[in-house]
Amino acid sequence: MKVSLILEIAKALMLARFKQTMIAAIGVVFSITMFVALLGFMNGLNKLLDGLILNRTPHIRFYNEIKPSVNQPIDLADEFSNFYNIIRSVKPAASRLSIYNNEAIIRTLEEDPRVLGVAPKLSAQVFYNVGTIDITGVINGIDVEAESKLFAFTDYVTAGNYIDLKNTSNSIILGKGAADRMMAEIGDVIQATTSQGNRVQLKVVGYYQSGLGDLDNVQSYASIGTVQKMMGETASYVTDIQVKLKDFNLAPAMARDYRDIFGIDADDIQTVNAQFETGTNIRTLISYAVGITLLIVSGFGIYNILNMMIYEKMDTIAILKAIGFSGRDVNNIFITIALTIGFVGGTIGLILGFMAGLGIERIPFETEALPTVKTFPVDFNPKYYIIAAIFSIVTTYFAGYFPARKASGVDPVEIIRGK
Amino acid sequence: MLETPVLEAQKVNKYFFSPDKTQVLKEVTFQVTRGEFVSIMGKSGCGKSTLLYILSTMDTDYEGKLLIDGEVISGKSPSYLSKIRNEKIGFVFQFHYLLNEFSVLENVMIPGLKLNKKSRPELEHIAMEKLKIFDMQDHALKKANQLSGGQKQRVAIARSLMNDPLIIMGDEPTGNLDKRNSDIVFNIFKELAKEFKQTMLIVTHDAEFAAGTDRIIEMEDGYIIKQ
Ligand SMILES: Nc1ncnc2c1ncn2[C@@H]1O[C@H](COP(=O)(O)OP(=O)(O)O)[C@@H](O)[C@H]1O
Ligand SMILES: [Mg+2]
Question: Using CA positions, which residue lies closest to atom 10 of ligand 1?
Fold first, then answer.
């Protein structure tokens, strides 16, 4: 009953100053709309850009690193065992790049319930022989089906059919940049020299375009068998094992465990892409900063309008106090006004923000660099809507706090005497 | 046995500090008993309004003791005083009338809604009864600012009666009205005194009005000189 009276008085005051109340609410609507649309758009872009790398990056990658042996001969010599031995200019040991016993490792990984899939890979440095010049490049030998299932390989094959890589022997999908430089058309046969000195003829069956220019200038793809043959290695020669997890947050811990079990190197996605995450975080931070600034500005609007309302309604406040309303009641009335403006403005803002998101999502966005993207990406994560809703209430509460406190402190005697 | 006075002021002193320290109320001591209709008279500036604001608990910055219904009111918390004002005191102003945002009926009802002891339909009924006393029932649904000055003052008096207060205080309630309207308001007060035995303390300039009350308190320069 008491609450309803407060609401009733708050409503009457708002209706009496309907225009100003509307303007304050429109301020909130605008800022919440912008907040939601901006964050949705920014994070849509973030996800897209992250996806460019992260979709194609294994969550864990196993490989053998070329590095110096940890146990140098001097450490084994008894006579120096009590010394602190320093050896300069240590050279890497001649270790094999191929992962030993990789079939067993792959089988173990595939049986792990946390693992979504495993794809072996093999990289070969080559020179493409174009007329009299040689262009350097890397040919990745991949398991075509696993690669397209786990790492969206097909999305980036912009011309030709990816499955030809498996069905046609000695075929290659060239990076778009490399293909342009070699002026190689689909169906052409190109010649490459491996670092072992083997010359091979490869048939171009498609183009690969990731959107990252540097990558597309260098990386090309062939089936794992083709690359093994090029290098003159057996079918057990694999340099990388790529793993995709069901939950990529488990990657660092799993990488650590398996590194010890298998005795080979393992990188997790978080470590490899640390700097990438930093970029994402900064973009997110900027959009939050802009959104919150907008909200604070609209908070000042509410503050102004409530202050004005209090000056205009001094008499009303004085009468209310004279007939028995306490300072707290008056305070609640004005807080209620502020929160109503925040709630109504916020709700409309969320709806408009959602619609703005839908609108942005329809704007065509076609670029050479992003072959899979046709319109602007928008992230409709409910998180942003919840944050916006909380913020609209919190800022309007603080905007109302000081005017309401001022109103509650109005001395009725002063006002009544002033007449 | 002596009946407890409705209102009692004991040695009330009041100072203003701007521009200089001046004493506007000096050792003001008096009582109002139940059912009494008392008027306060005195020259302009002698401290009548100041006294009334203290008595109505709105002004708490004074020396001395104030009792309402036998209870010491001086020094109580602001929120407790709000409750006292809501429940026990009806106040009629000279200029300040009504809440323009609300209808006449709602204006009368608001003290009852605030007290929150009866249901809304009950309160509506009571408010209507109060309006009928002043022949204002036909205006119940008008907005407050659609009334004439005399009508507003009648509604304001109806509002002061809403919670059946212990005492009604008025600060020159006819001071801003023409002769005809002030006669109407004056007659209303007399009727309240006679028919409802309503305790009232009214500040007035009008000697004729004062003559019609049970007792006149005369003030000069912050003193009560005759009662
Ligand atoms: N806020 C104030 N500050 C200083 N002096 C005041 C203030 N309010 C009233 N006074 C002075 O107190 C005296 C009493 O005023 P008031 O009670 O309004 O007189 P009355 O109602 O009898 O005409 C006057 O001299 C007036 O000038
Ligand atoms: Mg006065």
Answer: B16
Q: For A64-84, give the DSSP string.
A: ------SS-HHHH-GGGTTS-
> Between vectors from CA A256 to CA A254 and to CA A258, what angle results, nearest 5°?
65
Statement to judge: residues A119 and A156 lie in one domain: yes
Beta carbon of B46 within 6 Å of any ligand 1 atom: yes
Instruction: With CB atoms and an 8 Å threshold, state whether B111 touches A12.
Output: no
Domain match, A209 and A232 both: yes
**What is the reported pTM?**
0.76
Domain edges within chain B: 36-44+77-226
Q: Does A362 touch chain B (CB under 8 A)?
A: no
Tell me how many domains chain A contains.
2
Range B36-44+77-226 has CATH code 3.40.640.10: no
Q: Where among A241, A267, A293 does a domain terminate?
A: A267
Q: Is B20 in the pocket of ligand 1 (CB under 6 A)?
A: no
Query: Can you tell me the ipTM of this complex?
Result: 0.93
Is there an atom of ligand 1 within 6 Å of B94 CB? no
Note down the domain range covering A384: 3-54+276-417
Rounded distance from Cα B42 to ligand 2 centre (Å): 10
Tens digit of pLDDT for each residue in A327-371? 999 999 999 999 999 999 999 999 999 999 999 989 888 776 666
Asked whether the beta carbons of B99 and B178 are under 8 A apart, the reply is no
Buried b (16+ CB within 10 A) or exposed e, B119-158: eeeebbebbbebbebbebbebbeebbeebeebbbbbbbbb
Helix (H, G, I), strand (E, B), or coil: what is residue B142?
Answer: coil
